[in-house]
Amino acid sequence: MAVPRAPVSLAIAKHAVDALMTFYDPSTGLWDPGAPWWQSGLALQAVLDYMAATGNLEYLPQARYTIETQRHVLPWWPAGGGEFRAQSTDDTGWWALALTSMHALTGGEAPFLDIAKLDEAYIWSYWTGGDSTGGGAVCGGGIIWNVDDRRYHNAISNELYLLLAATLHNHLVGSAGDIATPTSNTNSTSISTLVATSTSTSTSTSTSASTEYLDRALQEWTWFFNSGMINAENLINDGLLETTCANNNAPTWTYNQGVVLAGLVELYKATGDASHLDTARRLANAVIASPALMPGGVLLEPCVHMAEGCEPDRTAFKGIFMRQLAKLDVVLADRPYKAVIEQNAQVMYDVARDFSSSSSSSGLYGGVWQEPFDGASVGKQASAVLLLVAALEV
């Protein structure tokens, strides 16, 4: 059964977003200050995606406030941090992507894209291919995850960078192929200066300004595709061994299987090369065919069967996959994933919703979509919103 269509589906998504906003702390701009910081970036992304999909901009003031408060230097950032430049490159990636969405939603307001460009340069500085400030050719290239120890080539940091670089290219390249001048005002001059400085110090001299983001995205994808993280079943393991740079055979987390889909869609939009969509199909189909990841047609995170469980980070992963799957679906003529997305949304609504409230507008969801409500958290709720937005868009 498909998710009920508008206006009912709009109401379901609205209730879920309102439930997500109950976690919002108006003093810090975080969704639950005790939750992992990256999940507030993801919650921001979920709310921005909802506003973009529906045209309902009522949460825009909170989105602005979150960005303004969280862009400052925070205690765990390395020296010279701030502007979302975190100790792990994936954390920076989540926030930077939300900033590109904020830029699009606000019609190009400053300084959102300028900060995202600064974040791209920061992540790129941890590329280990020898042609940036990231150091020598460790594992032949790739973005490292841990900034302090300069270690661990993992899937999510590299996938997020792929998506960010390709997205920036597609935001900035005009019809003549030139990068547009960033929008600026008196409040963003310093950011623009930082962007210019970071770009000049981290870009290969052979890379022209008009193609740097696409060149980097293609370089990232070539490295990632050949890294060994994609296994023989077209499932992506978590990362590479430090000693040998071989696949570490760690679990296939659903978000690792999802973010890459959106990255490949952006590469297709940038290049017109349909082979990127073919690869994305194979990666998406591998999840759908997996009895472990998609039992009965409903997505399941591997941590459900692990002793340590899914809290706190892994509760958010499934919605990320579904949101990126929708981005792939809408560019394919045969729309192969529409039914899968709608089925997952319907099952979540029918089974995992919080039925303890007498209100028919209960919008809280648990973390296992095919099981009854198991408590609320920012990760679970952001995941639910992302799934419902995906169902609205397909």
Automatic annotation (TrEMBL):
GO terms for biological process: carbohydrate metabolic process. GO terms for molecular function: hydrolase activity. Keywords: Hydrolase. Gene3D superfamilies: 1.50.10.20. SUPFAM superfamilies: Six-hairpin glycosidases. It comes from the Eukaryota. InterPro entries: 6-hairpin_glycosidase_sf, Glyco_hydro_76, MUG_Protein. PANTHER family: MEIOTICALLY UP-REGULATED GENE 191 PROTEIN. This is Putative glycosyl hydrolase protein. It comes from Eutypa lata (strain UCR-EL1) (Grapevine dieback disease fungus). The lineage of its organism: Eukaryota, Fungi, Dikarya, Ascomycota, Pezizomycotina.
